[in-house]
Amino acid sequence: MTSPPPPDPEPFRAEVREWCRTHVPTGWRDAQTGVSDEEFVSFQKQWFGELREAGYAVPHWPLAWGGGLSVGEQIVLYQELAAHDAPRLVLAFVAIHHAASTLLAAGTDEQRARHLPAILDGEIWVQGFSEPDAGSDLASLRTAARREGDAYVVNGQKLWASGAKYAGWCLLLARTDPGAPKRHGISYFLLDMRSQGVEVRPIRQATGESHFSEIFLNDVEIPATHLIGPENGGWQVAQATLSAERGMTMLELAERLGHAGFTWLLDACRRPNAEGLRPIDDSLVLDRLAGFETEIAGLRAMCRSLAVRHETGHVGPADASVVKLYYSELLQRMTNFGADVAGLAGSTRIIKPMSSGWESGAWVLDFIGSWEWTIPGGTSEIQRTIIAERALQMPRA
Amino acid sequence: MSSDLTELHDELRAVAREVLAAARRRGADGEPPSLDRQTLTASGWLGLEVPEALEGAGATLAEVAVVLHEMGRAPLRSGYLGSAVLGVGALNLLEPTGRRDDLLGQIASGAVRVAVGLPTGDDVVGPVAPCYSLEEDGRRLRLRGRAAFVPDATDADRLLLLARDPASTLVVVAAQPTDAGLRVAEQRVLDLTRNLGEIAAEGAEVAEGSVWRFAADPEASARRLMDRAALAIACDSLGLAEAMMEATVAYAGVRHQFGRPIGSFQAVQHACADMLVQVMVSRELVGTAVELLGCETPGSGRAVSMAKSHACAMAVDVVGKAMQLHGGIGYTWESGVHAYLKRAVLNRSLFGSPTAHRKRLGQRYLDGVSVLSED
C-alpha cells in the first residue's frame, strides 16, 4: 500500500478557496478566446501578479525566495485552483519551474539573486534544448559554444522553443567540447534573448497556433558568468532538474484534467446532438465516461503519491516518466473521445481560449493539441524505454 | 499512514510472501495448488479483523488487503476469502451477540470455516438484491433461494446467507451445510486455485436464533459487505498482475534470441513498461479504496467500483501479455502462466464485471448530481 498524503491542511484549503472565489476572473475563457498576443501576455502577467501577491505563484520555491509551502499545501493549492477553474500560468511555466529549479540546483548566488526575483517580477523564460537533428537523441545536439576570453560565442539552431517570442531569457544547452563523448561535452547557459545575433522565428503548429519557435544563434556572445554548472557538465544539470520538476507540475495538470477536463466531457455528453439525442443516454458512452473518471482518479492519486514521495526522498527512477506517459496518453484518449462525442459540431470550434489547460472543450483542437504532450519532453516511446531500463532494469538495447 | 503501520505491513507482506511461496512449492502434481488448513491457521491471518477480545488480532481491512494482495501473487486454494474476508467482514457488521462472537472466535482459531452466500455476479452492484428470502410458514420461517459461485462453499462448516426477512429487511441467516433443505454443491471452474460452489435453500427451516441482524442500516451494511467482496478480488488481481509482470521482466532478461536477451528488444521493453504503468495506476486505485472502505468514508463505493473495474480488467491484459512475452514456454501447463490467466479471468467476473462497476459509476452522471462535489 502506498502512504496517503499527510492530513490536509484544512485551514489553508479554506483560505485558498476564499481567495479563488474573490480573485479568479469570471468569464475569462470567453474573454481569452481569439485575443491578440499582446492581450494574452498582459492577461498572463496580471494573473501571475495576483497569484504572487497571495503567495501562490511559486509555492514550491524555498521560503527565502518567496515560496515555502509544504507539499501538502501545494497539493491543496493546485486542487483548489483547478476546482475553481483558474487560468493557467502558461507564460511563466518555464521560468517558475525549469529556470528556477536549475538556478536553485546549480546556480551561483549571483545568478540566483539576479534571476529569481526577476522571475517573480514577470521575467519570461524559454527552453533552448531541441535541435533539428537532436530531438529524442537530445545529447547529439550540435549548437556550438566556443570560449573566447570572458565570453562564449554561440552558433547553431534551436527548435521547439515554447514561448520563445515572449521570452527575455533562454535555458540553453550547447556543445563546448566537440571531442568529448556526446553527453560530456555539453554546457548549460543562461542566454539573454536580447543579445546580438539571436533570431526567433515562430513555427506554425498542427493546431494552427504558434506556441513554438525556432531560435537561430549567429555569433551570439554569452558572458562566461552566465554558464550554469560546470563547463561540460550541462547534461547532468539538465537531467537532474528536468525530472525533479515533474512532480508538482504533473499534479497540477492531473487536477485540471479531473476538474475542468472531466466537467467539459460530461457537458459534451449531456448536450443533445443535431438529432436531439444526448450521447450520455447511450450506455456505451456512459461506460467510456466511467472509464475516464476511473483513469483520472488513478492519475490524480499517482501524482499525489509522487509529490509526497518527492518530499520524503523515495522517488523511483522512472516515476516521472510513468506519470508523464500516462497523463499524455490519457489526455489524448480523452480528447479523442470528446471529439467523437462532439460530432460534426466539434469541428466548428475553430479557436480555443488562451490560458486554458490542455482540455478546453474545443475537443477537436484539444485532441490535435494532445500530441503536444505525447511528443515533447521525451516522446512516449522514449518514456517507455526509460521505464523499462530504469524502473524495470531491463537489459539495454 | 504512520511509519509504524508501514513497517507492520512490510513485515506482514514479507511473511505472507514466504509462506505462500513455500506452499506453492509443496504442491503435489495433479492436485490443485492449495494452502493447507494448518498453515493458514498458524499464519494468524484468519483472525486479522477479529477483535482482540475474541482472540483475534484486532487489525483492519488494510492488513487483510496486504494478505489478499500476496494471495494474488501466489494463487492457491485456501478458505481465506470465505472465512476471513467475507465471513469476518459480515459478522463484524452484525449486532454483537454471544453466538456471533463465538463464531468470530472460532474463525480466528481456525476451528470453523465459513462461506457467505452473496450475489457474486453483476447483481453485486445496484440496489441490494440478496439471493435468499425468508418466508413465514405458519409459525416457522423457511429460507428459499440460491447463491452461485460462492467462495469456499464446499469446505464451509457454517454458512452465512444474506436474505430478506418477511418484513423485507436484510438479515444474515446462519446455517449449517447439513441442515435439511440446504444443498451445497461444488461448481467446477477452469481456475483450479478457487473453490466455488452453489448453495441452494429449498424451504430450509430456520430457527429464530439463526436470523442475525445488522448493527447499522441493513441496506448500507449489505452494500458495504458486497463492496468488500469486490475490493478483495481487486486486491487479488493487482497481486496477480504484479507477479506476472515481475516474472516476465525476469524471463526477458535471461531468454536469449538473435544473440541477445529478448528484454533488450524495444517491443518487449515497451510492453513491460506498459504493464508497470497499468499496475501502478491500479495500485493507487486499490489503495484508495482500501483506505476509504476501511474507515467508512462516504464515496467508498465509488472508489471500490473504480478499483474493481480497473484492476480486474488490467490483470487480464497484463497476464495475457505475460503469456505472450514468455513465448512458447508461456503456453505450456508447466510454466504456470495459465493458472494466473484463468484466475485473472475469473476475478474479472467475480463480484461484478468491469462493465457492471462502471455502470454503477455512470449512474451518478445520469442522476445529475455534481460528480465533482462528492470529493
CATH architecture descriptor name of the largest domain in chain B: Up-down Bundle
CATH superfamily caption of the largest domain in chain B = Butyryl-CoA Dehydrogenase, subunit A, domain 3
Give the assembly state of these chains.
heterodimer
Number of strands of chain B: 10
Query: What structural class do helix, strand and pairing data of chain A support?
Result: alpha+beta
Q: Nearest-angstrom radius of gyration of chain A?
A: 21 Å
Strand content of chain A: 5-15%
Main sheet specs of chain B: 8 strands, mixed
**Rg over CA atoms of chain B:** 21 Å
Number of domains of chain B: 3
- The DSSP helix count of chain A reads 12
Instruction: Give the proportion of residues in helices of chain B.
Output: 40-55%
CATH homology superfamily of the largest domain in chain A: Butyryl-CoA Dehydrogenase, subunit A, domain 3
Instruction: State the secondary-structure class of chain B.
Output: alpha+beta
Mean pLDDT of chain B equals 95
Numbering strands along the chain, what is their spatial order in the largest sheet of chain A? Answer: 1-4-5-8
At CATH level 2, the architecture of the largest domain in chain A is: Up-down Bundle
Explained architecture:
- The complex is a heterodimer of chains A (397) and B (375).
- With 397 residues, chain A is α+β, with helices and mostly antiparallel strands.
- Chain A has helices at 10-23, 28-31, 37-54, 71-83, 93-106, 109-120, 234-270, 283-312, 319-346, 363-369, 371-374, 380-391, and strands spanning 125-128, 144-148, 151-162, 169-175, 186-192, 198-203, 212-223, 227-228.
- Chain A contains twelve helices and eight strands.
- In chain A, the strands form two sheets. Chain A has a four-stranded mixed beta sheet. A four-stranded antiparallel beta sheet of chain A has the order 2-3-7-6, with no helix packed on it.
- The two termini of chain A are 33 Å apart.
- Chain B has 375 residues and is an alpha+beta fold.
- Chain B contains ten helices and ten strands.
- In chain B, strands 1, 2, 3, 4, 5, 6, 7 and 8 form an eight-stranded mixed beta sheet that branches. In chain B, strands 9-10 form a two-stranded antiparallel sheet.
- Chain B starts with a helix and ends in a 9-residue tail after the last helix.
- The model of chain B has no long low-confidence stretch (mean pLDDT 95).
- Classes of the chains: A alpha+beta (397), B alpha+beta (375).
- Chains A and B meet through helix 7, helix 8, helix 9 and helix 12 of A and helix 3, helix 6, strand 10, helix 7 and helix 8 of B.
